[in-house]
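All the exercises in this workshop are built on plain-text protein records. A record pairs a protein's sequence with a compact description of its fold. The structure tokens are whole numbers drawn from a learned vocabulary of backbone shapes. Once this layout is familiar, the rest of the handout is easier to follow. An example says more than a description, so a record of this kind follows.
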Amino acid sequence: MKKPKSHCTVSSNLLLVGLFTLIVGFAVGFDLGRQTNDPDASEPLVEKVQPRIPLVPVADVNPGERGEAKSESGGRRLSQSEALFELAGVAPELYHEVQASMSDVLVLAMVEKLALEQPSQVSSVLDRCEASQRGYLSIAFVRSLSLQSPSEALQWILNRKGQLAGEDYESGLNEALSAYAKGSPAQAFEYLDTIEDSELRGNLAVEVAKGWAGLDVDRGLDWLRSLPDRNVPPAVLYGCYSEILGALALQDPKGAARELERLGSDRLQGELLPRIVSEMSRRDVTAALDLIAEQVDQTTRRNSVLALLDENVEQDVVAAIEVIAHHANLLDGEAEEVADLFARMSRTAPDLLISSFDDLPNHLRTTAAGSVLRTLLVAEGDAELAQEWVETLPRGEAFDRAAEAFAGHYAQRDPQATLQWAGKIEASERRAAFLSSYIERADTSALPAIAQSLRDAPIREEARNRSLALLNRRMDNELLNLVAR
């Protein structure tokens, strides 16, 4: 025999059916949730929304006018757990048994999921929540609903002004407007003065800039020029210009450069010029270099050169080397970035980097030599070509580093080759440091071969004797350790 449904459950089902019927009847014949991406729309989209959800707060309607304003608890506000379980289809009277498993994360996840699937039910439940719970749940609801229908989400939160705490209302409004601005930036911006929180106002302005950047850069520029009249803080202005000029740089880098120059802002110049140079260099490297040459600020010039090289280094190795050589002094202190550029060039065309090696200033040759050797010895596996090239290098730091790289390359398998290359290192301190490290790290089984190779290695007698002393000490320690076992 089936157990009869409780009065509470039946009442809830009837309530949901009635609410669903009312909403469906209201929605029939309308294209629900439709939006337009036309920024020229003369009227705000929010005025045209045909809602799938009760835009007016349900709990604020007189019970005699709208039956759905009543709750199963006779109008009592729902707690967080009751609201969650009602949304999940579980009888609210059972919430005490599993209340221990509740968490804010679980509640928010449920609200955000059901906002996309059953927005009407979520809206009704939120309107009946306790005031302490309604705020952050409403923000989550608006954030999720904005993914499907920004205009509906915006109208919903606008109609809850006064029903939510001021901070919660502004946060929800910011969520809705940020999504709404993607398709209707002009209309979204009209709500700026309704938000008191300065951080949220700034966020909205930047989101509007993103909207213009994606829809109409020219109109976005006109909008930008009007911002100072709205007392927008400088930091927010920088963010807005960054979005729109960044989009303009993709379409018309020269135009973006002219607009940036017109602004006369050193901060924006430093931030945006490298991006403009990068885009410009795709079309005209010469024009990009001319633009760099016009810059007075050294940091801006350096970052712009690096941006240009980053964009083009693999497309034209010879030209990239010319740029590096010409701006060598500017690149001082950027060892890591320059090393990365050389590494990319050596992977792309090591032969071109080798043939252009003499064009580089001395202080950059060492970095370039290391990159070429790593590529030839490791990636390409062409030790013969690498050796032929290294032998042509003039003696100095670049050659010493190359010789050390070769010695390290053979260290694990060929003591004789290792010591031959180590003996070619002219700087005594570098040579001594390598030999010491090599002897200390060598595998125990390789020590006899190293001892034999040391006696015949082409190194100075002083270095040989010092190395043999280190080797003997290492072998004595190994013998003592063996006996101790």
